[in-house]
Amino acid sequence: MSDAMQLTGLAPRAALAAVRQALEAAAVPDASFDARELYRLAVGRDPRLDDTPLTAEHAARLGKLTARRAGREPLQYIAGKWDFLDFTLDVGPGVLCPRADTEVVCEAAVDLLREMGKADPVVLDLCAGTGCLGLGVKRFVPGARVTCWEKSPEALPYLRRNAVNALKGAEVAVREGDVLTGWQDMEPGSVDLIVSNPPYLTGAEMQELMPETAREPAMALDGGADGLTFYRCLTGPWQKILRPGGWLVLEIGYEQRRAVLDLGEQNSWVNGTCRQDYGGNDRAILLQKPVDLG
C-alpha cells in the first residue's frame, strides 16, 4: 500500500476496498470505518459520495496514511483531531485518545450539576488529558467554573490548546498538578463536583494492551497493580475538597464497579450508583459527599 501507483486512477469505491483489505490484513479492528476516515483525510471528500478517480497526489497521501494505520498507529493520532460529544479536540501522541464511552461519564456529571441548580458551580476535571470531560461540562453548563488538572508534560500542550479553542469562545482553566498529592493545596469544601477518568488498568492488563493502546501514554493507563491506585486517592483525601452534598463522578473499567463502590462505602460516601455506557458496560460511578460530613 506504500506504492501510490496501486491507488492512482482508481474510482473511490475501488480505492476504499483496497484500503480496507490492507487494514484487514493487518488485523485492524473495524477496518471499514477506518478506511472511510483515511479516505476523507487524504482526499477531503466522503468516498460514498465521491465519483472522482484518485489523482497521484491523493493516492500517495492515502497510501501513506494507510501504511500508518496498518502499523497500528491510532486513527485519532493520524487524524490529529477527534470528536467528543458535539465538539472537536486536538489529539496526538502523548495524550489519551478521547473515546465515546467517556461521553457517558460527562453526561452523568452534567445531569448532577443541572440537578444542583447552581448558576456557577465549581468543577474539577482531574487527570484531564485532552480536557474532554471538563470541556463537556462547560459546553452544557456554561456557567460552570471548570479547572482541568493534568500532570503529563506531553499531554499539557493538547489540553491547553483545547481549553482555549474547542468550545469557540468558552474556556476552561488549566492547572499542572499531580492528582495523587494535589488535594493538599486545595481549600476544603471549595468544589461542587469532581469528574475524572483516571488511569485504571491493572498491572496484568498493562501487559496485554492492544497495539493501538500500547501507543498511548502509560501514565494515562496504568492504575497500579490492582488498577485502583487513583480511586483510593479520589475517594479518600479528595473528599474533603468537595462541599457537603457535592459529587464525585468517575470513569471505571467495565469490571471495577464493585471495587470502586466499595471504596466509596469505606470512605463514607453516599448514594453510590453506576451508569452503563452505550455498549452496556459499567462505565461511570457516582458518589455523593454526605451533607453532614464537613
Characterization of this structure:
Helices cover 38% and strands 18% of the residues. The protein has 294 residues and is an alpha/beta fold. It has a seven-stranded mixed sheet with strand order 5-4-3-6-7-9-8, with helices on both faces. Helix 1 packs across helix 2. The chain is elongated and about 70 Å long. The model has no long low-confidence stretch (mean pLDDT 95).
List the topology elements.
Layout: H1 12-25, H2 31-43, H3 56-70, H4 75-79, E1 81-84, E2 87-90, H5 101-116, E3 122-126, H6 132-140, E4 145-150, H7 156-165, E5 173-176, H8 179-182, E6 191-196, H9 203-206, H10 211-214, H11 229-235, E7 242-251, H12 257-266, E8 270-276, E9 282-288
Parallel strand pairs: 3-4, 3-6, 4-5, 6-7
Antiparallel strand pairs: 1-2, 7-9, 8-9
